[in-house]
Amino acid sequence: MTAAHVRLPPRTRRGVLHWLRRNLFNTWYNALLTVGALYLIVVALKAIIGWALVDAVWTGSNEECRAAIGDGACWSVIGVKLRFILFGTYPFEEQWRPMLAVALFVAMAVISSWRVLWSRTLVLGWVFLLVVLGFLMRGGVLGLMSVPTEQWGGLPVTIMLAAIGVTLSLPLAFLLALGRRSTMPLIRALSIGYIEVVRGVPLISVLFMSSVMFPLFLPEGITIDKLLRAQVGIILFSAAYLAEVVRGGLQAVPAGQYEAADALGLGFWRKTRLVVMPQAVRHVIPPMVNSFIATFKDTSLVVVIGLYDLLHAARTATNEPTWRAFTTEAYIFVALIFFICCFAMSRYSRRLEAAPGNKGERAAS
Fold first, then answer.
1. For the segment 242-261, what is each residue's pLDDT rounded down to a tens digit?
2. For residue 308, what are the β-bridge partners?
């Protein structure tokens, strides 16, 4: 073949201008829509930046904030009401305890994000930490003032309800998913019935039943803490949704894996624990984290049973007449906290799913 017959590869075009021309300005109506959208974005950003940053009142009294109504935000309400928003009605002089509890929980969560530290010791560390946090919040030992759960509120309650709810609902979800795929009719029927009934009602109904209706069936003189009843309701509700997620992972495991485990002589529980369940969980990391995020956000519904979660504490903090006009700023602050927590969980799940070990194991399966 002569040099004249050699065909060169097509010339590729790269760069920002080529991407803009191909995706945003490829036709006249797309160009018109792009220009219109950019104009609306610029106008909106100008108004938001002016209200939230340029004309905002960062420090000062409520009189200064009232003078800026209609022009800028009043972020000084966050500084004045910060401790109430974060810790609710917890005794003011004892608020170092929930502050320390949140710090310990965040530190443990950061440590747990390192895969090299995953072991039974880490699980025992979480159990020990939860016990310590319970004693730290409740008090009554080591000279700490006893604080009933009716006075707990804010961020510690939100974190505790979400973390404990997700942690304890996972084992129940695994059992329900296995039960739904069981060949024993009774276990299969009970699992399906529980999952469908719980998934068929909103969480607010479950919380109402656990807090208001359930005590009516208890013997006279026996009461269960309201926070504990809410925690149980969240656990049962979250388990039903996670069970369907886990069941999807179990269905994604190739049949050859089950057959190989049977050929090795593994029993049902060893096969499930060592072969099937690890692969199933890897398949459903994204939807499982979605359920975790949904549970974390749904903790705001405990307001219907009178608990001071983070959102309810922010709402109550601005009920004072002098600060009632600045509820929006308090809600934005709470929304930022929820966004940071949910975004961190989402990013970590993506990193965990893309880990080299998971990719290799998934390819091998």
1. 999 999 988 888 888 888 88
2. 153
Each residue's pLDDT tens digit, 264-322? 888 888 888 888 888 888 888 888 888 889 999 988 888 888 888 888 888 888 888 88
- Specify whether 165 is located in the same domain as 122: no
Contact 243, 177 (CB under 8 A): yes
Of 123, 88, 118, 119, give the one whose Cα is nearest residue 102.
Answer: 88
Would you report the helix, strand and coil content of the chain in percent, each value rounded to 5?
75, 0, 20
- Tell me: do 226 and 355 sit in the same domain: yes
Tokens for 191, please give them.
Answer: 């699992």
Domain residue limits at 109: 91-146
Beta bridge partners of 17: none
Pair 138, 192 in one domain: no
What is the spatial distance between Cα 10 and Cα 28, in angstroms, rounded to a whole number? Answer: 27
Q: Residue 167 falls within a domain, yes or no?
A: yes
* Selection from 292, 302, 301 nearest residue 239 by Cα: 292
Q: Note whether 108 and 251 are same-domain residues.
A: no
Distance, CA of 184 to CA of 171 (rounded, Å): 20
Which stretches of the chain are assigned E, i.e. beta strand?
153-154, 308-309
